[in-house]
Design goal:
Largest sheet: 8 strands, parallel
Strand content: 5-15%
CATH superfamily of the largest domain: Glycosidases
Strand order of the largest sheet: 4-14-13-12-11-10-6-5
Number of strands: 16
Structural class: alpha/beta
Number of helices: 25
Mean pLDDT: 97
CATH class of the largest domain: Alpha Beta
Radius of gyration: 26 Å
């Protein structure tokens, strides 16, 4: 069999043969047959299907070969935003899904166990090492040199568990034929290393997102220093001995930080020494680099990029063009000056919720990148910071990565509805056509960061925007509710339907909240007290309704996230630390809101105990300033909301449900009837005349 290919044949109605070049190819062929011939559906949380027995296999003969040498998956941040609390049972199902999607390349970023040994041998004290390692929910940014120590210290038992877990993950992935990129040394070291090597060139890393001294600004060890090579080779040697090797190593020395010198020779030497440290241990080494550091960064001139990339022999650096769907770098860099690259869809930041995507762009740009002059593209990937949202976009990108030609998206979305719900229904087709041509039709340069008003710290200057006709979401929601009362679908498909109903209800409330917010601020500006009070009450109603619908589905529960975090701990103090990590990451993101609401979640529990109290306080203080005809004191509000709501939430020990409460369909119907009535009410019509900004 040719590499990355599968063949499916049926010799009789009861005999199906799937042959592939490797385990991933066979799994990809299996999924193709499940979807297109048996009309069965899997995603990253559900990999079980039911087949009627005895089953008759459709008579077909198919041969398919991937257009991509590699189909890549994962972002270094995914390991903190989505995988932080996963046990191997989660990973086992997820790896099966990865194989069925045709994924052949991924990363293995766990490294703290090895670093502890290296730092100890060098001479660092236990306390110095513990001060460096961040907690489980923040390790991704400690590894990239952005922060240190926040959310820690992590106990030895946790480091040992991570090492064992990663070994099991890698074995399962390699058994299927996947390639793994292991971490290499990028140059970031604990600040205490200066104590041991006072004459070595260390550069303090610039402050990242206003983190205080205690948690920021570790040192970057210049790659030209002999100490760099010593540490780099020892680390990579131990990493390979611990985890095996597929000759690919990822390393990002300047993630969201500037090199100390804007000089072509310096950048060339830096890249040369980093790669050389890999080559000395593995003569077949390929350096995998995130192209994120070039995105919208004025430091990286064309000259500096070229000098950096060409310091490594052509073909020995593999670039992940991390957000090709919005900010592609392959065109600017002339296909990365000859280095191979993977076209990646990033899509999501912080694992936030909110329906969005660029389906047409993903479909067409992958094809045009294959066909551009002197293209060095060798594959397609998905690089979300977090998963478990907008699955349709990832299914599309991964399927597109296997194919050389564009997909007929009108037909693809219809098939998606058929297999997702296990039934063919024109009304469900309409739902997904409405979504395809609205929320999944974004084509612009404004950053989508999930910062919708409903989940942001309240302020008088929020500026929500939209890129689609919001009535499409309302119509899709209405259609899904109609279907819910008179359609029959297989038992295994019901969770997908109820998830989508909850998500669409949440999306409607999110949009409506944005619309009401801009009208609230218009009422405040024009000192219209009756209008202000009416809209303020409706905003709080929307929050209550969002909490109610989210509570009906397991995938939208805060309790599930917190329980998984606590289950990682062996002792009460560890459970408390991990819970703080889990709570802080999705809210304040730092000791005092350094990246506030970046990884925001519209989850039951978060809405009720975090977003609602914030907006209630804001509306109360805003109302007081309006009544007293005084300017709203933004600084006073920020202090109060931080001290009374945001920071306390991170250290709260309140227990939340891990099982859904209420019937999704019934509560969605109630919310639909309520808000349809609201929008037809004369007061709502008269008071909500300001429209959302459209881009």
């Amino acid at each position: 069999m040719p590499a990355r290919s599968f063949r499916i044949t049926t010799s009789s109605p009861y005999n199906l043969s799937i042959v592939g070049a490797d385990g991933v190819s066979v799994a990809k062929g299996f999924h193709h047959y499940l979807k297109y011939y048996l009309h069965k559906y899997v995603d990253w949380t559900h990999t079980q299907v039911e087949l009627p027995l005895p089953i008759r296999f459709p008579n077909i003969t198919i041969f398919s070969k991937s257009a991509s040498d590699f189909i890549y998956y994962q972002n270094v941040c995914t390991w903190s935003y989505s995988f932080a609390w996963w046990t191997f049972s989660y990973w086992r199902r997820h790896i099966d899904w990865m194989a069925m999607m045709g994924i052949t390349l991924t990363i293995a970023p766990i490294q703290e166990y090895i670093w502890y040994d290296i730092y100890t041998k060098i001479g660092l004290k236990k306390e110095e090492i513990e001060d460096h390692f961040a907690g489980p929910a923040f390790q991704a940014w400690q590894r990239m040199g952005n922060i240190r120590g926040w959310g820690g210290p992590i106990p030895q038992s946790y480091r040992r568990m991570q090492k064992v877990l990663q070994r099991r993950i890698l074995k399962a992935e390699r058994d299927l034929g996947m390639h793994i990129a292991l971490p290499a040394f990028a140059g970031h070291v604990p600040v205490s290393l200066k104590r041991l090597f006072p004459n070595v060139t260390f550069t303090p890393v610039e402050r990242w997102n206003r983190f205080p001294d205690k948690y920021c600004c570790d040192f970057f060890l210049d790659p030209s220093e002999p100490l760099f090579r010593q540490i780099a080779t020892e680390f990579l040697n131990l990493t390979i001995n611990t985890y095996g090797s597929d000759n690919i190593y990822f390393c990002d020395p300047f993630n969201e930080m500037q090199p100390r010198i804007a000089d072509a020779d310096y950048m060339n030497a830096t890249a040369f020494h980093i790669y050389e440290s890999m080559r000395l241990i593995d003569g077949e080494a390929t350096w995998m680099l995130q192209g994120w550091m070039f995105v919208k960064n004025i430091f990286w001139t064309d000259e500096l990029i070229k000098s950096f990339l060409l310091a490594v022999p052509l073909g020995k650096m593999l670039i992940l063009d991390l957000q090709s769907e919005q900010f592609p770098q392959y065109d600017r860099t002339y296909s990365f000056h000859g280095q191979p690259f993977i076209w990646c869809m990033l899509h999501n930041f912080g694992a936030t919720l909110g329906m969005h995507g660029s389906a047409d762009i993903v479909n067409k740009r992958i094809g045009s990148a294959w066909k551009m002059l002197n293209s060095t593209m060798i594959g397609v990937g998905i690089t979300p910071e977090g998963i478990n949202q907008n699955y349709v976009m990832y299914a599309l990108a991964l399927e597109r990565g296997w194919l050389y030609d564009d997909i007929d998206l009108e037909n693809w979305f219809e098939i998606y509805a058929d297999v997702r719900y296990g039934t063919r229904d024109r009304r469900l087709h309409k739902v997904w056509q409405l979504l395809y041509h609205s929320v999944y039709s974004y084509n612009g340069l404004l950053k989508i960061r999930g910062k919708y008003s409903i989940a942001r710290r309240p302020a008088t200057n929020l500026n929500p925007w939209i890129w689609y006709n919001t009535s499409s979401v309302y119509d899709a929601w209405k259609q899904l509710l109609i279907v819910s009362t008179n359609v029959s679908m297989p038992r295994n498909n019901t969770p997908f339907f109820t998830y989508d109903l909850v998500d669409l209800t949440r999306q409607f409330l999110q949009i409506t909240f944005d619309r009401m917010y801009v009208n609230l601020m218009d009422a405040y500006k024009n000192k219209q007290m009756d209008r202000f009070i009416y809209i303020a009450n409706k905003l709080l109603d929307a929050l209550n309704d969002n909490e109610a619908i989210l509570a009906t589905n397991t995938e939208f529960l805060l309790g599930k996230w917190l329980a998984a975090a606590k289950n990682m701990g062996r002792r009460p103090i560890e459970k408390q630390l991990y819970e703080m990590n889990a709570r802080n990451q999705i809210t304040a993101w730092g000791p005092n809101g350094q990246i506030l609401d970046y990884a925001t979640k519209q989850w039951s529990g978060v809405v009720g105990d975090y977003y609602y109290p914030r907006w209630s306080l804001f509306l109360h203080m805003l109302n007081e300033s309006l009544q007293q005809d005084e300017k709203f004191n933004e600084d006073a509000f920020k202090r109060t909301v931080s001290q009374e709501i945001e920071n306390p939430f991170s250290i709260s020990l309140k227990i939340y449900p891990t099982k859904p409460i209420g019937d999704s369909i019934l509560i969605a119907q109630q919310i639909y009837q309520k808000w349809t009535g609201n929008m037809e009410n004369v007061n709502f019509i008269n008071y909500c005349t300001v429209t959302l900004r459209v881009v």
